[in-house]
Design brief:
This protein is of the alpha+beta class and about 900 residues long. Helix content is about 50%, strand content about 15%. It folds into four domains: about 220 residues, Calcium-transporting ATPase, cytoplasmic transduction domain A (Distorted Sandwich); about 230 residues, Calcium-transporting ATPase, transmembrane domain; about 160 residues, Rossmann fold, CATH 3.40.50; about 180 residues, Calcium-transporting ATPase, cytoplasmic domain N (3-Layer(aba) Sandwich), CATH 3.40.1110.10. The site of adenosine-5'-triphosphate has 19 residues, from helix 13, strand 15, strand 16 and strand 19.
Length: about 900
């Protein structure tokens, strides 16, 4: 159906919908017929496919090959064990993959787009996939268009359709029918299409097609799931893992050759070399990162921060500057009018009597206003809601007033112009009513309405207005100016028409800081993060609020948008560190501020809510959108969405980002030090000319039991508050540095040492089999205990032994399985272990505890030293202050 050729009335008739919208009953009926409004996505991998993928690894193939050869040689036991271990490993891998994917998908669902529709006469917000053909949808600047629809109302309605047409210029939409046939999408001026977004103005449209029937659905008949990109951390670890694997393969190859030279059977030597490589190569590195990130972000979503891109978590951990909007993020966004200014006087809002000038000002503030207040549900911008509330307090009801003076045209608000206008029918003529920032409006007025009528606005009165505006702003009030003029044109007004206005007065409202902002700002400063306020509001208002919450000390730290304009990028770069408040800023200034900080090698978080904020959100290292007040476009561009619009949530998210990074580092430390212990033991035995301390099945069992489960458990360590007392991590700091390698190798060597002692004790008291059983059990158990060492920099006694129950569980499960393998006769034969007596069992336990005890004692001593240093620092600091 060519809806663009029909008039809007015809379209409504064809789609069988009235101006009241569809009824919920009708919606259900249409949904049954056409389904949900979504595009077919390529199906994710099935569990079977994920399971099969686990066998693609080169080493696993080698292992299976060795097992088959073993079977051919009649050694069925080791074949069974290898197959058992490989399958169990694959099952574990599959479960982890599916769990991580599920939590990433549920995060995606949390940030899915919404649409505003009219149903049963009520305007409401619904998830966009619930739209049906015939729904009436409303659009404002910054909204995504989620279905194809015929425009039935347009007010400076401009849409960016680049995803469909490739044309980056916005298209102005109209409502008139198009008479030509076969019009291209770009020329269908009375249609809007799914996949595009509103850049300016307001519009209403009726849905004509949904899901795969939309134009975008036709182009992308099958949307490929964008392949998940690896995070920088995963890439670093992948590269490191590759280099390490090569080294381990070389070591395994050398051991294979030595074994053969020592007349060991080829298949046994091969099996051992492969098992050693499997046990020593940390194949789980990158998947551990995904799992810890996925679980970490799930937890963050419960504290109101929805992370949309996993790599944002890494950047969050190293944020050194937060550029935050003021209104709604640092403040409560609960505006309440406090003062009015008319006829050269400031009056308190509750003392404002029913003077005609005051009444007229309030009436105009309700007309040049899009907010709707009905009972508890307020729709619209809090600034405008405050004005409607003011009207109600003065018996100027918004519905009655708007019905009496219907709106004919409008020039919508945008944060670049910092004002808006409407044209309303008013006492036999049409009036243009304009409201906006005082400094903008005053330049567009030449007269003023006073109790003596309309007078010329001379410089003296202008100066008085500016002075009064400043004194209101000094108290942290947001001040709006109102002006009007008779509008004689028949046609839609242009931006140039907002001129030669008559000044009416000002309305000042309070938006108090959020109670938690002050502490969050202090936390930032303690954590070495610079908080910066960027606001469209007046400089003096911004400074007043910034002082209350501790962002600014001195007024010289504030800069205005027009001052930024005069600066070159280099000049801005030179002063950026000294500025804490930017006022009267337009969205394009934001991107310059982000770049200036980034040039200083700072990692920047930037908040934004409007459609024009999208470029700055993309440029920032972490773009943060507002879940409640933000536009759909800003949410799409951001890498994190705050469901409570709260600055304090960003600070909490940074703390989580830092903790998640530390947890990942600790998991990897655990994995690598355990693997190092295994390989050190084998190399030592080989160099010392001893028989191999482990059978291949031992290595496989250790790999299965002590690898990923405790590593994931360490990754789930509760977040440590004290992490916000440290400076941010530099972006260039690699996770794998000298200190990391030193720690991994010393811990690995310590575990290898106790393992070799166990081997020696067993070997000298009995046989090689007893020796290797004791070595196997000690390596296994000490690695499990070592997981407690890897939980934190601090000692477990300080952080609480039981505070991470997952680690305790993984130790218990691992120990029980080991006990079972060592004492249940059928498994004993399979796993090539001999029965140990009590004293040997006790030796194994005692030796396995040594790395734990030694590291804990070391940490306790270090903790004590650093606390006494801290105390000395404090005393010094106090004496400095004194
Ligand atoms: P922030 O950038 O911290 O969110 P903000 O809400 O003040 O602050 P904008 O929404 O860009 O930023 O508003 C900029 C200025 O435009 C305001 O200070 C006010 O003077 C004016 N203004 C805000 N809302 C409206 C509106 N609905 N109609 C007319 N003028 C407005």
């Amino acid at each position: 159906m060519k809806f663009y050729r029909k008039s809007s009335e015809e379209v409504m008739e064809i789609l069988d919908v009235s101006i009241d919208g569809l009824s919920e009953q009708e919606v259900q009926k249409r949904r049954l017929e056409h389904g949900y409004n979504k595009l077919d996505e390529a199906k994710g991998d099935t569990p079977i496919k994920v399971f099969m993928d686990q066998f693609k690894d080169f080493l696993v193939i080698m292992l299976i090959l060795a097992a088959i050869i073993s079977a051919a040689l009649g050694k069925y036991e080791s074949t069974i064990v290898v197959i058992f271990v490989v399958v169990l490993n694959a099952i574990l891998g599959t479960v982890q993959h599916i769990k991580a994917n599920n939590s990433i998908n549920s995060l995606k669902a949390l940030s899915s787009p919404v649409s505003k529709v009219l149903r049963d006469k009520m305007k409401k917000e619904i998830p966009s996939n619930e739209l049906v053909v015939g729904d009436i949808i409303f659009f404002d600047a910054g909204d995504y268009i989620s279905a194809d629809a015929r425009v039935i109302e347009a007010h400076s309605f401009q849409v960016n359709e680049s995803s469909l047409t490739g044309e980056s210029e916005s298209v102005t939409k109209e409502i008139e029918a198009i008479s030509q046939d076969d019009v291209s999408i770009g020329d269908m001026k009375n249609m809007v299409f799914s996949g595009s977004y509103v850049t300016y103005g307001r519009g209403v449209a009726v849905v004509t097609d949904i899901g795969m029937k939309t134009e975008i659905g036709k182009i992308a008949s099958m949307l490929e799931n964008a392949k998940a990109r690896k995070t920088p951390l995963q890439e670093t670890l992948d590269n490191f893992g590759k280099n390490l694997s090569i080294a381990i393969l070389i070591i395994s190859g050398i051991i294979f050759i030595i074994d053969i030279l020592r007349d060991k059977a080829i298949i046994d030597s091969f099996m051992f070399a492969v098992a050693l490589a499997v046990a020593a190569i940390p194949e789980a590195l990158s998947s551990i990162v995904t799992i810890v990130l996925a679980f970490g972000t799930q937890k963050m979503s419960k504290s109101n921060a929805i992370v949309k891109k996993l790599n944002a978590v890494e950047s969050l951990g190293s944020i050194s500057v937060i550029c935050s909007d003021k209104t709604g993020t640092l403040t409560q966004n609960k505006m309440k009018v406090q003062k009015l200014w008319v006829d050269n006087n400031i009056v308190d809002s509750d003392e404002a009597t029913d003077q005609s000038l005051i009444n007229k000002l309030i009436q105009f503030s309700v007309l040049c206003n899009d907010a709707i207040v009905s009972g508890d549900s307020n729709i619209g911008d809090p600034t405008e809601i405050a004005l409607v509330n003011l009207g109600n307090e003065h018996n100027i009801n918004e519905q009655v007033t708007r019905n009496a003076h219907p709106r004919i045209f409008e020039l919508p608000f945008d944060s670049d112009r910092k004002m808006m206008s409407t044209v309303n029918a008013y006492e036999n003529s049409n009036l243009m009513i304009t409201k906006g920032a005082v400094d903008t409006i005053i330049n567009k007025t030449h007269k003023i309405l006073t109790s003596n009528g309309v007078e010329i606005l001379n410089d003296e009165v202008k100066a008085k207005i500016k002075h009064d505006n400043n004194s209101l702003a000094k108290n942290g009030l947001r001040v709006l100016a109102f002006a009007y003029k008779e509008y004689k044109n028949e046609s839609r007004p242009k931006l140039e028409d907002e001129d030669e206005l008559i000044f009416m007065g000002m309305i000042a409202m309070m938006d108090p800081p959020r109670p938690e902002s002050k502490k969050a700002v202090a936390d930032c400063i303690l954590a070495g993060i610079k908080p910066v306020m960027i606001t469209g509001d007046h400089k003096i208002t911004a400074i007043a609020i910034a002082k209350q919450i501790g962002i600014i000390k001195d007024e010289t730290e504030a800069l205005e948008g027009h001052e930024i304009e005069k600066l070159t990028d280099d000049e801005l770069y030179n002063i950026v560190e000294n500025i804490s408040v930017y006022a009267r800023v337009s969205p394009e200034h934001k991107i310059r501020i982000v770049r200036a900080w980034q040039k200083k090698s700072m990692v920047v978080a930037m908040t934004g809510d409007g459609v024009n904020d999208a470029p700055a959100l993309k440029q920032a290292d972490v773009g943060v959108a507002m879940g409640i007040t933000g536009t759909e476009v800003s949410k799409e561009a951001a890498s994190m969405v705050l469901t409570d619009d709260n600055f304090a949530t960003i600070v909490k998210a940074i703390s989580s980002g830092r903790s998640i990074y530390v947890n990942i580092k600790n998991s990897i430390k655990f994995l690598l030090s355990g693997n190092a212990a295994g390989i050190f033991s084998v190399i030592f035995a080989s160099v010392a000319g001893l028989a191999a301390p482990f059978a291949p099945v031992h290595l496989l069992f250790i790999n299965l039991l002590t690898d990923s489960l405790p590593a994931i458990a360490i990754g789930l360590e509760p977040h440590d508050e004290s992490i916000m007392k440290e400076k941010p991590r530099k972006r260039t700091d690699s996770i794998i540095n000298k200190e990391f390698i030193k720690q991994v190798s010393t811990k690995g060597a310590l575990i290898a040492l106790v393992t070799m002692i166990a081997y020696y004790i067993g070997f000298s008291s009995g046989s090689h089999l007893v020796g290797s059983t004791m070595a196997f059990a000690t390596l296994c158990l000490s690695r499990l205990f070592h997981s407690l060492n890897c939980r934190s920099k601090a000692s477990v006694f300080k952080i609480g032994v039981l505070s991470n129950i997952y680690v305790i569980l993984s130790i218990i499960v691992g120990s029980l399985m080991l006990l079972f393998v060592m004492n249940y006769p059928p498994l004993m034969t399979m796993f090539e272990v001999s029965k140990l007596d009590i004293s040997q069992h006790l030796s194994v336990i005692g030796l396995s505890l040594i790395p734990l005890v030694a590291v804990q004692i070391y940490k306790l001593i270090k903790d004590n030293n650093s606390t006494s240093h801290e105390q000395i620092d404090k005393v010094n600091h106090l004496s400095d202050v004194a």
